[in-house]
Amino acid sequence: MLYIFSHSSKPEVYVFISDEEQGNLLIGQAAMQLLLRSQDVTVQSLQKEMLMMAENESDEQRLVLMHEMRRWLAGYCSL
């Protein structure tokens, strides 16, 4: 989402990304990494890729999001 506020002569632009959107971006990043290595994109490979991404992540919020997205993906493992 993009919000534009104008309290002065210059409008200020703020971008708000919801947790759902951030989760979608994270899955997309993991998928792109797999594709760049010519690997199949499956639920299991996405979970594994996010786990590898987490090893180098220092942002606590992003780590929590990675954990949540791996749990969410786990619901699709049996499909």
Structure report:
The protein has 79 residues and is mostly helical. The protein has three helices and two strands; from the N terminus they run ββααα. It has a two-stranded antiparallel ribbon. The two termini are 32 Å apart. The model is unreliable at 1-6 (pLDDT under 50).
Shape: globular
* Radius of gyration of CA atoms, rounded to a whole number: 16 Å
| Residues in helices, as a percent range | 55-70%
**SS-based structural class?**
mainly alpha
Unreliable stretches: 1-6
Which strand-content bin applies to the residues? 5-15%
Mean pLDDT: 83
Order of strands across the widest beta sheet?
A: 1-2
Ends distance: 32 Å
Number of helices: 3
Number of DSSP E strands: 2
Give the biggest sheet.
2 strands, antiparallel
Instruction: Please write the string of helix (H) and strand (E) elements.
Output: EEHHH
Helix/strand layout:
Elements: E1 2-5, E2 12-15, H1 19-36, H2 43-55, H3 60-74
Antiparallel strand pairs: 1-2
Describe the structure concisely:
This protein is mainly alpha-helical and 79 residues long. 58% of the residues lie in helices and 10% in strands.
